[in-house]
Amino acid sequence: MKMCSYLRNILLLVLLNEIHLHTAHGQLSDDYTGHSNADSDENAFDPHNLLKYYATSQTTKEEEVYVFPPLSRLDPGDVGTIVSVELSPGRWFDRITRAVKPPIFEIPDFLSDEECDHIINSAARNGLGTSQIYGEDNEPDPNTQDIFRVSQQTWLNRNNLGGMFLDNLQNKLSTLLNLSKEIIKGSESMQVVNYLPNGHYHAHLDSTRNTGNKPCCFQSSCPTPPGPECCRICRYATVLYFLNNVDGGGETAFPLADADENTMTRFLEGGNLAHQWRNLSNFCHNSSVVIGPKRGTAIMWYSHLMEAETNYLGEIDDYSYHGGCDVTKGTKWIANNWINAATYNERFVKSIWVD
What we know:
Elements: H1 2-24, H2 30-33, H3 47-64, E1 82-88, E2 91-99, E3 104-107, H4 113-126, E4 129-130, E5 149-150, E6 152-156, H5 158-161, H6 163-177, H7 181-185, E7 190-195, E8 200-204, E9 235-242, E10 248-249, E11 252-254, H8 261-268, H9 271-278, H10 280-283, E12 289-291, E13 298-302, E14 304-306, E15 313-316, E16 322-324, E17 327-329, E18 332-340
Antiparallel strand pairs: 1-2, 2-3, 3-13, 4-6, 5-8, 6-7, 7-18, 8-16, 9-13, 9-18, 10-17, 11-12, 11-16, 14-15
């Protein structure tokens, strides 16, 4: 980059010298003087035009450089704080703070009954398969016989949900999170998950740690679905929707939310204690934040910190461990919108999900 700047400066000096020499001999062009000269040679060298061309070409190149939009972060206030927000024209919703570390918000009636039914029916038409887990942090504990994740899932995009429905939802998400629509539209497709009795998902992280300097999957050319050996998951925030009322169980739990530093240290060291808080089949209600499934309610939280110096994706927030408690009766439907974001060093790379 320094060499390019050096060569550019040399070229400018040469051009300015040519302008000086031609000016001394009265050879200024019509384009520069603004006067017509019938005796001038149309093919004569005009350094001013060349200089203007150079400057214009540089401006064009600079304008063509893509930069991923910077992030923002909602202030949670204190636990129990309620903020009224207009998420669509004339429609106001309560945003309730459920935790501060990480910021966790509950938004009742975020989706209407009709919107919930539309998502469930779209998922059923698309077909569901066995849910998978991704990343070393989310592997089952070898000390337990429980299956780490028991559910079925599918992915829905514009073709499944319809353009108008998805546009309206993405506009609400952009307003809710105070993030650029470009970030929302460049994020992963919606995931829909169905849990039958005894279905659950033990405490996990939504992102994978930055080991080995792997690129974010949403900015990479890795195969679909990508593997952890190729890229890492970069989900700045999660918006989870409860799509139905569950007859029994099915809560979403955050075992470490607002925990003190000593508790975090003990829990993350591993061993029996770590096994207990991650196993939500047995220890769901030991969690510091437990939110029951209510149709239409959305839960939003941050899985990463935001770098204060750059306003780009920071480190994973270990307070964001969460999971789905066992369904004890009936069935449970949820959907997830994960908001992907770039690090400062990867800010010049576009999402693969946008043109």
